[in-house]
Amino acid sequence: MLRILGIILILSCNSSPLFSQEEFNGPFPSWANVKTRFGAIGDGKHDDTRAIQNAIDSLTVAPMGFNIGKDAYSVVYIPAGTYVISSTLLLKGKIGCSIIGFDPEKTRIVWKGGDIDTMLLASGSAYFKVSRISWDASGKKQMECIGLHWMEKWKDKTSMSFATVNIEFSDLKFFGKPDFGIFGGTVGGGGVKGTGSNDSEVTIKRCFFSECSQAGIKIAGYNALDYWIWDSKFLNCQIGVWNNSGNYHAYKCLFIKSTFADFINRNSYYTSVRGCFSFESQAFSGDDGSSCNPFKRIFQGNKVIRTKGMPIQYYHVGRITLFDNLITKSLDTLHPFLVNQKSWCPVSYSMLSIGNSYGYAKQPLRIANEGGKIFSYSDQLIINSIPDVADFEKKMAVTPTIVTRKIFEVPFQATTEQIQVIINQAAKISGKRPIIHFPTGIFNINKTISIPAGSDMQLCGDGLFNASVIRGVNDSAFFRIYGPSYITMHDLEVGQFSSKQSSNSIFVFNNVDQPGSHAFIDEVYSISPNTITMDKLNFLLVQKTNSFFADGDRVIGGDLVSSGKGSAALWAFGAQFANVSVDNGGSFIAKDCWWEGNQRVPVDLKGKGNLSLDGIMMAPSKADSNPTIRVSSFNGRVSIMNGYIQGGLQIDPVNEQLKMLAWNLHFYHKMQPDRSIPRNTKAKIAFMGNTVQCFIKGDKQCENPTSVADVLVNIEDQAIFLPEMTADDRLAMPINIKGYNKGVSNILIYRVSMGNSQSAIVFR
Predict the structure, then answer these.
(1) Does residue 648 belong to any structural domain of this protein?
(2) Domain ranges, residue 336
(3) What is the pLDDT of residues 39-67, one digit of tens each?
(4) How far apart are CA 130 and CA 146, in angstroms?
(5) CA-closest candidate to residue 763, choices 747, 752, 750
(6) Is 67 part of any domain?
(7) Nearest-CA neighbor of 722 among 641, 632, 609?
(8) 3-class DSSP state of 674
(9) Which residue among 267, 393, 720, 744 is the one 20 to 30 A from 417 at the CA level?
(10) What is the Cα–Cα distance from 268 to 471, expressed in whole angstroms?
(11) SS (H, E, C) 163-229
(12) Bridge partners for 111 per DSSP
C-alpha cells in the first residue's frame, strides 16, 4: 500500500503528460500586465490589492461600449510573483474576459485581510475564465478563495449585470486552509443571499484543493447547475464536493483522505461521478436526510479504496446506477456492505449494477426496504491487485506547460487578405505549432479563410465572447480546414449573433477521417441549428464536453460504420443532447446535461444507429403530459437512463427494428409512461426502475413520486438485454486530449462561440 507521504509528494509536483495538445503560450501584447501596466509589485510584501483591482475594473465591456478600440483588453495577466491582497477582488459586470497567471507554481495571491471574507468575488459576470494562479487563504477563518455569486442585478451607462454562465476555473491551487476553494451559487441553503439565478454551466478542471476545512468545492442553489469537474485533486479536505440543491458531474478526479466524504449531496437532482479515484476517505458519496425525492446517483468507472466508513449511502427513492466500478472492502466492520439504499417512502426500490468489482463476495449491495430489487450482471469479487494511486495520477490531465512558439500577431482590424497571408506563412512552418493570435477587437472578413492540409498551427484570441470577434461571410464557411491536420482553435468568437438565419458554416473540416483521428470540442457556445455535423465518417472520434449552449448534433455514419466495422462516434459529457440526429449506423452517447427551452419535442429520433442518453434533465418551458421524447422511426439501440422527463415519451408503431431501454427515469405530469409502448409491437423494449409524479392541486395520490411497474416487451432474457443496452454507455468514458500523430487529424476547439450559421462545425 502506498504511504500517504508519497502521495503528498506526488500531489505537490507537476508531472508531464504523455501527450497533450494543450499548452500555454502567453502573454500576448494585447494582455494587460498587472506589473507593467498597473504597478503591481508581486514581492510578497507590498499590498497589490489596488493595482490588481484597477486592472480588473478596466477590462473591456463591449456591449456597454466600455474601453473599446486599440487600447481594449480582455485579459488581465498576472506574471510570476507573490501578490498580497487585503480586501476582496471584485469581478463585477464583465463579459468574455480572463484573469490568467503565469503558472500556479509561480503566481500566488496571498490573503492578508481579516477573517470571514472572499479573495475573489465574481458577481454578474459571464463567459469568463480564471486560470493558472495559486490562492492562499493564510489560515484565516471562514474564508472562500473564489466566490461565484450573482448578488444583484443592475444596469447603468458603463456597466450591467450579466447572467453568470459559461465560466471556467482551471489550473488553480488552493492553500491556507480555506473553508472553500470555490463556492458557487446563492440562496438554496448556501447561506449566501443573492439573485438565486444561474451561477451555472461552470467548468472546473485541473485544480488542486488542499486541506479545505469545509469543502474544496461547494455548490448551493436550485439554479447552480451543471458544474463539470475534471482532473482535479482533493487532499485532506473535509468534503471534496459539497452540493446543496444544484448538481455536479465529476470526471477523473482524485480524492485523498477526505475526513467526512468525497461527495455530499442535499436536494441534488442528479449527479454523476465517472472515472474518479478515492483513497482512504471516510466515505465516497453520501446524501443528507431521507426523502421521497427521486434523486439520481450515477457511479461509473471509479476506484474506491479503503474507505473508513460505508462507501456509498443513499436514502431517497431514486435509483443508484453502478457501471464498472472497483470498490474495496471498507474499514467499517459494523456494516458488511458497500452500498446502502433505503428510505421511508412507500414505493418499490431497485438498483442497477453491471461490470463492477466489489470487496465482498456476498451482498456488497444493500436495499434496506422490503422487496427491493438489485439487477446485478457481470459483477465479481475483487480478484486483481488493488490499483495504485500514483498510477492513476499519471494518467490525469495536467496544467498545460509553457511553450515558446513562433507568434504571428494579426493586426488590429486586419483584412481577409492579410489574415490569409499570415495563415499561409504559418502553414510553412512544419511541426512547430506556430500561433496566429487575434487580439481583442473586431475582424471583418469577406470570404473563406483556408488552412492547407498538413498544417499544425494554433489560432487563438483573447476570450470566448465579445473579445476577439471574427465577422463577415454570409454564404460560405468562415474557415475551411483541409486534413489531415493538427489544429487548435480557442478563445474566439466567430459569426454573427443575430436572429437572421445564415446559410453558411463556421468551421468546415475536409479529409479528417483517418484511423485514430480525434476531435475535442470543449466549452463551445453555438446558436446554429447544427453545432456538430459528422458527415459519413468511419473513424473520427469526437469528444464534446462542457457545452450547454450547443445542440443539434448530426451523426451520419460512413459505409464502414453502417456495416458495423467503423469506429466513428460522438461522445458528449456535459454537452447538449437536444435536437440530435443519428443515421446510417452513427453512434451518439451523451451524459450529464440539462436541457430547457420552448421546444415541445427536443428529442425526435428518426434514422438508424445507436443512441444513449445518461444523466439528463428535460425541462420545457410549458411542461405537461405531452411527449418530450419521440421515437418516430428508428432502427437500432436507444437507451435513456437516469433522468428527469417533464412530459411523456412517445414510441410510434413503425419501430419494428428498435431496441429500447428506459431506466431510472422520473416523469413529471405523465403518470403512465409505459402506455407509450405500442400494442403488438415487434420492438424490444424495457421500462425499468421508473417513477412518476404530477402536480394536480389537492390530488394527494400524485403529489409524491410513485413507482411504475417494470415492463419488458419481446425480451427473452433481461440478463442479456440489459448489458447489451448499456454497452455503448459503458464504453464511452472521457479520454485525454491527444497529441501529434503524423498523418492523423487531431483537432481541438475550445472556448469558441459560434454565431447563427446553418452548421457550426462540419467534419467530412
Answers:
(1) yes
(2) 280-400
(3) 999 999 999 999 999 999 999 999 999 99
(4) 10
(5) 747
(6) yes
(7) 641
(8) helix
(9) 744
(10) 41
(11) CCCCEEEECCEEECCCCEEEEECCCCCCCCCCCCCCCCCEEEECCEEECCCCEEEEEECCCCCCEEE
(12) 85
